[in-house]
Design goal:
alpha/beta; Stationary-phase Survival Protein Sure Homolog, Chain: A; 6 helices
């Protein structure tokens, strides 16, 4: 099996090193094509208004001065042309991608781009809380189990798999649960500050996942209960009930 790995935290990220260790426990044929710098919350953006460059580090390790989407796109069309991967793994993201986070996530976007281009893809993220310690060992120990189980099970061509690991030691993880996408409580996640020249500026978002909860069956509750959450995300965003109602209104 040939595996391509990418991320949104950049080519030097600790999570990418963890993902490499996961991938190499699954295959000897591992390729890395990732953004040159951090691209968190880049979503599914493609660079169209400036040129992109590829920096070769080794024969199977490349950096792209663009987004996660750019990285996967160039990996499949240029770096691995004629050597199409069997699987794309994205991550391991520093922080969870649960609930509506998936709409912002560059980690999800890399897996989404692979799926659009016809390659099965899994996004992996490690939840962490206050204090900034990220339990990469949990992601590594459970990542191999999850990916192997998912490959054995299989999933549809227009679906990507979103995996989140709970913020607990690997030995205390209770198992794996299939979960639907949840929804965070809405909060004002930004800070207003003043620079030395008296100008106001803003930081959007928070630096950790904080406490998670959520309704039963959601990825948020699964993580809170100490399980690995796996969520299938469909590329078709059509809301079927609304489509049926609108079709009646506009026959």
């Amino acid at each position: 099996m040939r595996i391509l790995i990418s991320n949104d935290d950049g080519i030097l990220a600790l999570g990418l090193k963890s993902l490499e260790r996961i991938a190499r426990m699954l295959s000897k044929d591992v390729w890395v094509v990732a953004p040159e710098t951090e691209q968190s919350a880049a979503s599914h953006s493609l660079t169209l208004h400036r040129p992109l460059s590829l920096r070769r580090i080794t024969a199977r390790r490349w950096a792209v001065n663009g987004t996660p989407t750019d990285s996967v796109y160039l990996a499949l069309h240029k770096v691995m042309a004629g050597k199409r991967p069997d699987l794309v793994l994205s991550g391991v993201n520093r922080g969870g991608n649960i609930g509506e986070d998936v709409t912002y996530s560059g980690t999800i976007a890399a897996a989404m781009e692979a799926t659009l281009l016809g390659v099965p893809a899994i996004a992996l993220s490690q939840v962490y809380g206050d204090g900034g310690r990220v339990r990469w060992n949990t992601a590594e120990q459970w990542g191999v189990k999850v990916v192997r189980a998912l490959l054995k099970q299989g999933w549809p061509a227009n679906v990507l798999i979103n995996v989140n690991f709970p913020d607990i030691p690997a030995a205390k993880v209770r198992g794996i649960r299939a979960s639907k996408q949840g929804e965070h409580e809405v909060e004002d996640a930004f800070e207003e500050r003043v620079d030395p020249r008296g100008r106001t500026y803003y930081w959007i978002g928070q630096d950790d996942d904080g406490a998670v909860d959520g309704a039963r069956g959601t990825d948020l509750r699964t993580i809170n209960d100490g399980y690995v959450a796996i969520t299938p995300l469909h590329l078709d965003l059509t809301h079927r009930p609304s489509l049926r109602a609108l079709s009646k209104a506009f026959p």
